[in-house]
Amino acid sequence: MSSAPQSRPFPGPVLVVGCGLVGTSVALALTRAGADVHLRDANPEHARTAEMLGAGTLAKPEAAALVVVAVPPDYVAEVVADALGEWPDAIVTDVASVKLPPLQALAAAGTEGLERYLGSHPMAGSERSGPTAASDNLFEGRAWAITPHAAVSELALERVRDLARTAGATLVEMPPDEHDVAVARVSHLPQVMSVLTAARLHGGPTDHLALAGQGLRDVTRIAGSDPALWRQILYANRLPLVELLRGVRDDLDELLDGIERRQVIEDVLGRGVSGTQLIPGKHGEERTAALATVFVQVPDQPGELGRLFRDTGQSGVNIEDLRIDHDLGRPVGVAEIAVRSERAVELADALTERGWTAYL
Amino acid sequence: MSSAPQSRPFPGPVLVVGCGLVGTSVALALTRAGADVHLRDANPEHARTAEMLGAGTLAKPEAAALVVVAVPPDYVAEVVADALGEWPDAIVTDVASVKLPPLQALAAAGTEGLERYLGSHPMAGSERSGPTAASDNLFEGRAWAITPHAAVSELALERVRDLARTAGATLVEMPPDEHDVAVARVSHLPQVMSVLTAARLHGGPTDHLALAGQGLRDVTRIAGSDPALWRQILYANRLPLVELLRGVRDDLDELLDGIERRQVIEDVLGRGVSGTQLIPGKHGEERTAALATVFVQVPDQPGELGRLFRDTGQSGVNIEDLRIDHDLGRPVGVAEIAVRSERAVELADALTERGWTAYL
Predict the structure, then answer these.
(1) Which of A113, A187, A208, A280 is positioned for an S-S bond with B182, CB 3.0–4.6 A?
(2) What average pLDDT score do residues A11-25 get?
(3) What is the count of residue pairs from A and B with beta carbons less than 8 Å apart?
(4) Of B198, B217, B127, whose CA–CA distance to A142 is shortest?
């Protein structure tokens, strides 16, 4: 049933409940795609701000084809149950960060119409919060987890997939329990580690922080996120999270006990490097995408490589990797420039035009 | 003795020993400023690549006004001692990440000419390494620590300050021991935390990593850095680092023991948020720079705020902060747009031109 996002408006009215960062961004993306989007929020300021941003209308819809519940984790089960009752023909999804607890709560309460509920989770956020931080492209190219349960209907699957695609996201489907284990590792653990790093910035002379560089800023960026929201997320997913944190403490103890031995430090550092190489997405893609090497003869003279870089930059082709092979027998070096294979010929031609001896 | 970077070439020949990322970047910045830069590296490939990049010449200088030692921490003391002996008229600095141990080693060895040595440390790097990752603007706007010792000469201070300014960096002067405590907190601790986070990516199903978002990438970016180099840094600075890591372990234990209690989670998260607010630099500056508020009347209608954002964007003035004040008594809201004060009038005028009622 796949359909290109902008090809047709979303089938029927959509009600977005919760006009924070994620809810308002979902509403903006759906509105951009031509959907009939209605907004609701317990906080009238948020709802009106979202409407003023063009995310949709505060008018109550006649009926709803889809209800998107974008409220904090503590309220998801309750709001989903209400939505299933209020809109008997609607598919209901939520976009919260933890998927098993609300499903269990709904099932335990014997909720009617559970086949119309399908939890999902767009892997996008910001250290900023609220509707004014929202954007209609927040989800573009991001993963959007869809977590089917045993009783879910085909229509629910179809409509929530359509939602994620309309927002420009990439679908990732897995059971709710697996999702929670996965986000504990890729989202909740990094959040805690970022927080623990930022927390250590207290207690030192503040002028020491004048030495802060980009590394510290990157590691601590998400530590600035809304604590009230994250308290709910970490609490809801504490079981898989605690297991990972125990592993971190073991690594930390290993490092503390062995820091006098360089080998111990190097072992821990090595596990970190190999860990980063497991991450897919932009960097991973670049590392694993089909690359081709363009070989360029570079006169072994001062500045020649700088000139090659400038000419390569002007060609508009992005350098993925670079090696310099100095053939010690000859007065010329060979630069091996790795680029995405589909751009290789273009680069070779551009460099040849500029007088370089370049070949594939 | 301050002088604008490009106003005159650096006084006399500079020898850069070590053509890795930092050494080659220093050489490129000095060359750009018109200095006479000479290069040396134990690895001839690195030296020749740096020369081909236009960082300087491999020819040995007649004399040197400044020697910049850019070798791994383990070799700093030895290479600095050799440089002081080989270039009796030169000021010698190093750019390594840890400052007290090499100074102690040089003093303990009764090194001649210690008054001509002044350690320094540019707070810039990359998860990439080697000369091909170098850039002549690596240090622009970054802090460059200068760590005077009791016996240092005025000329040494003047020349190393000149080096940092020529590279476009901001000078931060503090004693070597204080520097090491400071970087343990702002650089070495984040490195370890990033590594511990990335190390936990092992052991889960790899398809779980499809849910990885920007947060994980930011937290783990520096974990991809050269382990051989970082082993030396962490080992050299292990004393202050261990203290901080013990504090992290205490916080971690607090979280593990108390994760069943929401208050404990919120306390830890709160310390993280307030910690991030201690960080100066780009974000900190924006937060603390003199801001002015432009008030704009916004018709309380769908899309109006979106239109205001577009018009603001076209004005080229950056929004630092935003509040929407819905005056419930009137059919108009007021957007309070915080911008750098020197741009406020410009924004108000631009919005007025576009038909908005805007005022300061």
Answers:
(1) A208
(2) 95
(3) 398
(4) B217
Any A CB within 8 A of B235 CB: yes
Short-list B271, B8, B229, CA closest to B129 = B229
What chain A holds in terms of domains, given with CATH numbers, is 14-174 (3.40.50.720), 181-276 (1.10.3660.10), 289-359 (3.30.70.260)
| Cα separation, A102 vs A120, whole angstroms | 11
Maximum C-alpha span of chain B: 80
3-state SS of B14-42 is EEEECCCHHHHHHHHHHHHCCCCEEEECC
Cβ neighbors of A213 (< 8 A, separation 6 or more) are B123, B124, B125, B142, B143, B186, B187
Average pLDDT of the residues in B23-47: 95
CB nearest to B306's CB, from A53, A260, A333:
A53
Best residue of A99, A200, A265 to probe chain B, by most B CBs closer than 10 Å: A200
Interface of A with B in 258-297 (CB under 8 A): 259-260, 262, 265-266, 268-283
Q: Is 0.90 exceeded by the ipTM?
A: no
The tokens of B83 are what?
Answer: 């440089």
Q: What are phi and psi of A270, to 5 degrees?
A: -65, -40
Average pLDDT of span B97-114? 96
| Distance (Å, whole) CA A146 – CA B234 | 42
Give the C-alpha separation, B84 to B91, whole Å.
8
Average pLDDT over residues B60-80: 96
Residues pairing with A358 in the sheet: A296
Check if B310 contacts A (Cβ < 8 Å).
no
pTM: 0.81
* Cα A173-A178-A181 angle, rounded to 5 deg: 130
Helix runs in A99-143, H state only = 100-108
pLDDT tens per residue, range B179-206: 999 999 999 999 999 999 999 999 888 8
Measured CA to CA, the distance from residue B330 to residue B324 in angstroms comes to 14
Nearest neighbour of A54 by CB, restricted to B230, B246, B306: B306
State how far residue B112 is from chain A, nearest Cα, in angstroms: 31
Query: Which tens digit of pLDDT belongs to each residue from A297-330?
Result: 888 777 888 888 888 888 888 877 777 776 555 6
